[in-house]
Amino acid sequence: MAETDHMMAVRSRINELAAKAKSPEGLTEDEVAERADLRAEFLDNFRKSFRSQVEMLQVYDENGKEVTPEKVKKIQRDKGLRGN
């Protein structure tokens, strides 16, 4: 899944704030709050993306037999991604 322009900007700003936090001037209280908000947004987006990838997953053993966990199969069925 490609990273959106918005999320690239969020990641870039997080990195800017991290660099400033390491500098002698440090972060202001507003920047500390901004960093916390950006981190929360980034992690929320990461979790959603990761969950989506796992939900689309199909696992096969070395013999070609599908061994996708039943919990994942159920989620796929509920979302209409799987017929069986």
TrEMBL record:
Source organism superkingdom: Bacteria
Keyword Aminoacyl-tRNA synthetase: no
Swiss-Prot/TrEMBL keywords: Cytoplasm
UniProt KW Cytoplasm keyword: yes
Region entry Disordered, spans: 65-84
Locations listed in the record: Cytoplasm
InterPro entries attached to this UniProt entry: DUF896
HAMAP family with a match to the protein in the record: UPF0291
Family: Belongs to the UPF0291 family.
Descriptive protein name: UPF0291 protein DWV05_01955
Source species of the chain: Weissella thailandensis
